[in-house]
Batch of 2 targets.
Target 1
Amino acid sequence: MNLSLLILLPLVTALVILFCNGLKQVRVAALVGSVAQLAVSVRLLLSYQAERAAGNHSPMLFESKQEWFSSLHINYHIGVDGISIAMILLTASVVVAGILVSWTMDKLSKEFFFLLILLSMGAYGFFISLDLFTLFFFLEVAVIPKFLLIGIWGSGKKEYSAMKLALMLMGGSALVFVGLMGVYYQTGSFDLMQIANTPIPLDVQKFFFPFVFLGFGIFAALFPFHTWVPDGHASAPTAASMFLAGISMKLGGYGCLRVATYLMPDAAHAYSWIIILLATIAIIYGAFATMMQTDLKYINAYSSVSHCGFVILGIGMLTRTSINGAVLQMVSHGLMTALFFAAIGMIYSRTHTRMVQQLGGLLKVMPFISTVFVIAGLCSLGLPGFSGFVAEMTVFMGSWQNPDGWYRFATILACASIVVTAVYILRAVGKTIMGPMDDHYATLTDASWNEKLAATILIVGIVLIGVAPFLINQLIMPGTDTIMMQVGKAITQK
Amino acid sequence: MVTEFFILLKQELVITAIVFLLLFLKLGKDRSNESVLTIVNVLLFVNLAAGFFGNQEGTIFNDMFRTNSLIVFEKNILNLAFWLISLQSYAWLRTHKHVIEFYLLLLTSLLGMFFMISSGNLLMFYLGLEMSTIPLAAAANFDLAKRQSSEAAMKLIISSAFSSGLLLFGISLVYGVSGTLLFNEIPAHLSADPLHILAFILFFSGIAFKISAVPFHLWTADVYEGAPVAVTSFLSVVSKGAVLFVLVPILYRAFQPLAGTWYNILFVLALATIIIGNLFAIRQNNLKRFLAFSSIAQVGFILVGVSAGSPAGMASVVFFILVYVFSNLAAFGVISLVSALAGKENVTDYKGFYTTNPFLSWILTIALFSLAGVPPAAGFFGKFFLLIAGAARGNYWLISIAALNMVVSFYYYLRVVKAIFMDSNEQPISRITVPVLPKLSLYICLVGIILTGLASFVYDYIYSLSYGL
């Protein structure tokens, strides 16, 4: 399995799009490219499982390494474990769904699809990188398309949101950059696996860990740097919102785990109380802030802040189960939020409003879209049978395993936030699709084939994780174990 | 001896030959501007190509003049930049009365820079520097109808004269304490004595003027704004690049005993330059002024690389200047076309530019992203390597502040992008037909921006040369 394919395919797709003319050609090219990408991702999953079944226990599979800047010891080094494969599958599904819901994007369609594909390329490259330079490179590749997507095709105060998002994310990567410099000069290498085997002194870790963790944390909506999330999501066009929540915020979570925690476990241990404090605040604050929202997109955006808090909480707790839960939550939240935004986009494109109080009774005219909306909502509030339950439950269980009293208190608080989630989700869903319907909504149509397909892809993922969590657990467990081994070393040394 | 003289001085001699050819062309029968411009651009291409063949290392004139692979490479970068500028100014020079004189002045200036880069002696360095500055002041005055242009020339000549004074004072003190002007012999006589440090500070102030480092940056914005775009791009790319090229060996070799001192000075100056350049760039509306301040900030980043004091630092500086040539000239190329053909230079004029000129919009956007340091543009690699080299000293606070300043610079570059793509405008700049030669230069810049970084052999090649400090 050649992993470079994951970068080459989007690249080729993007180049083909440049030579296409008109919406019809462009969208077909984008769809073909993204479906091919999904096929490659599934193929990757299968060959990964075959390798593991054959008894290959090396932490990273399908590695390939090429010198890039030899004088600086920078390599193009790629490889995957279960966690990255889960992320890649998530990305591929969200990309296909995002392209399907933008099927009728006729404003500057060529540029639009080009940027979507470019963004996905950044994400794929990020998830397969085993070299910190390559990783950072792809992290930044993914920033600019977001700025343009929101600023050109967005709605509302789009320029403001686009600028805010771009600057905050660039700020995040600047912090990551400083951290990487420190690690590089401490260990003489950018190679992830090599650095993991080189012990870094505690004071050095303590100095650079905050840079890396905060930097990636900004991407993952870490409190108090979450402010780009609501504005960015609300102003973005539907597909971009899906990409932002489904892919882009996962870059941050993955980075916190793979770079910050994995490479500097001692510092992760030392700072875990701050991480948990911030995560708990994000969870509670995000939930209550959502209660106050009346715009569907803002509701979903603030609830994302709350849900991403679980990811950070899981990482901060540093137990095997909690880290597993964090990864599960990333996947689950990615699928669920993308579905939510897709449904909101479908509703908005028909009713031209996202205000909860102006909507009502949509179930009568658009049963499919309403059902999708309900599924997304129920998944978000953690109903068993959907991925949200599995992920959040795992995080809570894992967090409880951490014996410290204050950490348990934080876990209880985080659990309690679910009640708040239920309140705002049920309220929004109920008001939107039930109740009396405004007369001028009576002529609206239900979802078209492309929208149905997009929603189906995401729902399949959500339900699959929900009813058969062992499938994905099997996948990510070896990856978690690799990280836990590092963390374990750190704890036993004390 | 004679053949060695010709081979080592090859690049200088080619330029001198072109200067004389142009003089004869001027004295001969009248030609149309188009044909003259074609001839000149072909000659400049020949000049560029000639730099890649038959080079040797060595010194002549009793070590006054030296050359090696790195120096040849640096001169090639300058040749390339000059050729690109010449291609870009086609639209403007087509209707100008004094095309040949324009080239005579700039070529003479380039010749001066070549001698400066090759200098092995402070006297030679000073001669080259002066030879490069004085014609530039005349060239800055080349928008004959504009008063601003004369003002720019006046400001340039006065501030240059002042900085040259400082420089000379510094050089004379160095001579006083060491009794020699040769780079190779100076270090043996220098120590951390206050007088020696004073000599260095005076010398460095003069240099800081030329590269417009804070606090000697005040002339930059006015001169950039007033001068014709071609001269502005020459000043900001070629002229700065040349001085930085020569600054590195002077610091690393001649002032090696004062390394501790100049590291501290560079540290403070780099931060001040980055921060002040950024803060002023935020508020500019005129694009030339905007690029002036942004180029001040870029110099700050280069100084971070210079402060490394290692082969990696040297390589990153040369690499960044190559990247900067492509990025900045792509931006200036678009601006000069719009300025010559539509007469507009303000950020607000560029609102809705994408609706009428998608090609130029993308070039300008990619150039600005490269200047901002966004991958996959080469600027990302350039900045990364500068900071990586600077970080080798272990001063992470400097690196953090520089990295965070990249975010600030990101804001003002994105402001222009926002105007181009997102703001609506009743009357956007009308559609511009790009002549062939400027188009060629824009394509070269585009390829340069994309490939210089991704294709790692460029950096590795420069790195392999930089051992021969």
Note: Residues 147-178 of chain B form the longest helix (32 residues).
Target 2
Amino acid sequence: MPNSSASLPMADPSEPTGPERIVDRLVGFGHALRDHGLPVGSDDVLTFCAAVAELSPGDPNDVYWSGRTTLVHRRDHLPVYDEVFRTYFLHVPPPSADSPQEERPVPQGSTGTLDVPDSEPGDEPGDEQPLILGLQASSVDIQREKRFATCSPEELAHLRRIMARIRLEPPTRRTRRRAPDPGGPVIDIRRMARDAMRLSDSNPALHRMDRKLRARPLVLILDVSGSMADHSRNLLQFAYSMRRAAQKVEVFCFGTRLTRITPALDRRSPDDAMRLAAARVLDWDGGTRIGASLDHFVRTWGRRGLSRGATIVICSDGLDRGSPALLADSMERLQRLSHRIIWMNPLIGNDVGASPNTLGMLAAGPFIDELASGHDLASLEHFATHLADIG
Amino acid sequence: MSDTNPTPSPSSVLELQERLRTAGYLAGRGLATAAFIGLRLGRPILLEGEVGVGKTELAKCLAEIHGRELIRLQCYEGIDTQQALYEWDYARQMLHVRALSARELNDSETTASLYGTDFLLERPLLQAIRSGGNAVLLIDEIDRADDEFEAFLLELLSDFQITIPEIGTVAAAERPIVVLTSNRTRELHDALKRRCLYHWIGFPSIVEELDIVRLRVPDVADTLVEQVVNAVHQLRDMDLAKPPGIAETLDWVDALGVVGSDTLNIETAADTLGSVIKDRDDLELVHAELERVIADG
């Protein structure tokens, strides 16, 4: 927020302040914002100038607020806008400490200070486990970007195969709307009226209708921490295929913190999508905090209604370094905010009856509607084709 | 267009703020500037923000101070043009046809009358286009509607005209004031955002909220208002699943008034907590820390 005691934003004492000069300054501000990564279009700048013309260009408050309402289209961009405004108009050097209230809270655990429990009860050396586990979950938050340079031709083929299959079967739900259906329970009086008028028939045929079916929203929450390193790439490909196949799919990744990668997956080329998604997630192959991540999901996205009526698929091995109580708590909330929760745990492997008894799974267990495996592409394919039945 | 003359728009941000205030709405400088520019440039205003911070209320107050009619379109999943734009009244058309055939009238004029405005059921968007400058159009919770509906809205908001095949093109003589609200359950399309002026409404500061409560419920003792507002701010800092909005603050003050208590203490707070906290887990958390919330407040 501009300081009201600050000098007029246009006043650069050495130069004249005619109308053109003001427009130059305003347009320059638009460019400055663009340089800082805000998507400011020419039409936005035009609107900005028109807005300032309606107000007083000499009042920093007017310039600040009109710019904020015309040049910013997302809440996330507000801190950047504030900073650029300060440096551009008020000539305050960039590293200003007192940022305005819009500053977003820094997610917890962005530094590597976490208490590591000495032992993990649910994690005994399981001799009945035929699978080779990945790394164990560690609570160190490593900020690393996973390199997905290109997919191998074989992987691309796999991708296409999955995509072709899951296009068939997203889970559905009934809507309030009705559509014509000869065997439906409701009589379509409107259609009969229309027929009667058109055909001047006093005894129109009986039309019936039934509720429509719609694709149920699907939310994928993927564990990309160190212990899931062997699977995270498969999962990401799977998520990409799902996103391409069905309309309402949201994808999140977590290790120690939650990242939404849905927009990154909206690319025609799988390579581009993978690269963008990988760049967004900052905690590849790091520690796991399932509870905190799910809690974050519930509090932000869940609260806004993203998971309402949705099938939630959590893909994780349940090796959690966070508090089991928090995990159980957030799972309970999530269960209430969603339609079904499916937990895909690669540790299950091909042994479908097995229930892995990691601490995380024990905590989350009571709130899971369905357990699935998804340890390789084949089982992911199987899962995708049967999603409509279990979702 | 009707004969009623709506009140002219305010000539400055301060005047708008003042007039909103008399209508019972306290707008900060930023919100007032966004609304003022929207009014002046004829652009829709897109409001995003936490639940219960007065996004919808702004549209109501804008309608009030301009002496315009408020037309509200509540969006929901699966909303389509029939619910948003217009629909033919088939049942009445049927009756009319029966009446006509009884009198054996079947010339083209009577047929045409079947698709006249008499049989058109106006839904909010068509209503807004017809009222034009006499209306404030509130498109509430646009994020709940589907993508396709958003695209349709985009088209409508740019021209303010629609074509009904049987009647012809209906255009707004003057643009209505348009306010869109979103709770951010999903990201809106950039194209729609670009058409609009954007403003994020956050929670108010303690001082602002005190003003708001005093303005909305003037006959409540100042000490009670201060206690409640301070307690609500404590609650918002408490990491709740559903932090209370301004609407909840007002509800709480009202609830305390109904039970006839003029001060906020542990007992009265515990009794009326249901008007601010609407989640069971949150309730448990707050009950456990009620003493601190009240004491600091």
Note: Chain A touches chain B at residues 39, 41, 43-44, 47, 50-51, 54-55, 61-62, 65-66, 68-70, 72-75, 78, 101-102, 175-177, 189-190, 193-194, 196-197, 200, 214, 263, 298-299, 303-306, 329, 333 (CB under 8 Å).
